[in-house]
Amino acid sequence: MAFKRLLIATVTVLVPWLCAAQATLAADAVYVVKPIAEKKVKQLPDGPLYWRIENFPTLAQAQAAVGPDRWNPNTVSYDAATSLAAEVAGKAWLFTLGPKGGATTGGTKVAEIGPVPTITAPEYLLRINYGSGPPGAKTPPHSHPGSEAFYVISGELGQRTPQGVSHVDAGHTMNGHSAGMPMEVFNSGATELSALIMFVVDATKPFSSPVELH
After folding, report:
1. Distant-in-sequence, close-in-space partners of 167: CB < 8 Å, separation ≥ 6
2. What range does the domain containing 153 cover?
3. What pTM value is reported for the model?
């Protein structure tokens, strides 16, 4: 009987401690975001536009597939190719902003996300970020002067906006919102999250701004 009372007392002490420890770990979890490729362009292709994600055997092949900038007689200038290559999670990736249903020679299509919400700007920044973090990791509430789309490599990604909470599993995508949307991105799963993040934003404005999210 004495042992039973001791066991109950021990459990009574440990359960709150474990809950507090788990809450501390969740609070301390860091969602790490790393830029892996970016490019500024004066013009975007005619819309509606989609992000096309493809894999290549090597990064060199993905970079070679981007091709040179093209002369645009309408603007009397060169249009920069709207493709970016990067190596992430042991694979070579090519990200192309363009019309739906496109394909790049030598690439294997992984996903297509869109239509990308439109923005008008004097100059555009195309950026690819890599986001990762343990369960509970999250970003501070923020917004961008453009759209932020996702492809989840592993784990489960969550996004909270004034419109509600959305979740995306590995191998799936989430299209971006319109410019200025308040959001919080977090790992909503039980395993490590890794995701590719594609941006089309106004290059003349701050890339990210803190906001309040209720």
Report:
1. 156, 157, 158, 188
2. 31-210
3. 0.83
